[in-house]
Request: fold
Amino acid sequence: MREARRRFPRRWAQGSFLACWLSLCAAKTLLPCPSSCTCNTSSLEVDCSSRGLTSVPPDIPLDTRTLLLLNNRLSSLPGDSFSNLSSLHRLDLSNNFLDQLPSELLGELGNLTELRLRNNSIRSLDRDLLHQLPLLRRLDLSLNGLSQVPSGLFDDLPTLHWLSLRSNRLQSLDRVTFEPLSSLQQIQLGDNPWECDCNLRDFKHWMEWFSYRGGKIDELQCTLPKELRGRDMRTVPVEMLSYCSQLEDENSSAPAERPVPPCTKGNLAPSEPEPGPDCPQRQRYRPASVRRAIGTVIIAGVVCGVVCIMMVVAAAYGCIYASLMAKYHRELKKRQPLMGDPEGEQEEQRQISSVA
Ligand SMILES: *[C@@H]1O[C@H](CO)[C@@H](O)[C@H](O)[C@H]1NC(C)=O
Ligand SMILES: *[C@@H]1O[C@H](CO)[C@@H](O)[C@H](O)[C@H]1NC(C)=O
Reply:
């Protein structure tokens, strides 16, 4: 209404209010509505859902506030699909086949407050995709194929309240990616194949801080390692990840290993082949087995040591006992020739003579 009023000369509008009202109504009813959509001119909602669309209709009214494109067959969108729709507040692209979103797709939607991309085939996001949405409050990325969230994706979303990453293929998240979300109140993370290892430790700290601040998290159940399967990461004591600092030390001495993104994340998908020989993926579980091996060696060493000490003690005791016995016998023998044998002979002779 404000825009329309600006378009007409003020005096004319004041002079004939009725004419103005009529012309306004005419202007509204004359707003082109795409043939494949229904338009509500009072709520400025354009509903193009469930029409089997494979592309966005080109003639969306420029003052549209809500655009519903859910339940269609959209698979790729050109970067300028929503150009000039600067009044758009809500955009729903759920239940399509969207895969890759061009980084400039949402560039002109500076008033967008709600974006729904639920149930598509999005496997990765451009880190600049959301950079010109300063008013975005709700973002739904659930039921997609995301295996990672690029750092920097949430850098310019100061008003985001609600975020869903449910039902993706996330194994790990970085704390720094989520730190800029200063208004976040609720986050959904459930139904992802989380790996509760060192890579998730800093994000665990972020979750603790987020909960402390009053934020709500649905769940974060571990899939790996096997010992933690089904447990919520928040209940895993941080001591269980105490070897992480050792690992970080190792990594910092070999910094080339860290920034290799295709290796560190998202390559445990069943469809994908084994990670390459250079991937640190495999090494991630090594510390536990190394610790186990070291433990075994220590226990074996202690047992062997105890047995050895016992044997030495036994041998020493044997030697001392033997030498004492030998000495005793020697002394006994020394005395025997003086008073033992002659007396014995004499006594025998005496007994013989007395008997006789
Ligand atoms: C248009 O939107 C208004 C406000 O949301 C609603 O009350 C009305 O029923 C809608 N009209 C149609 C035809 O859907
Ligand atoms: C949309 O904006 C572009 C420039 O960004 C302009 O060239 C074009 O004419 C506009 N289209 C409409 C329908 O206003």
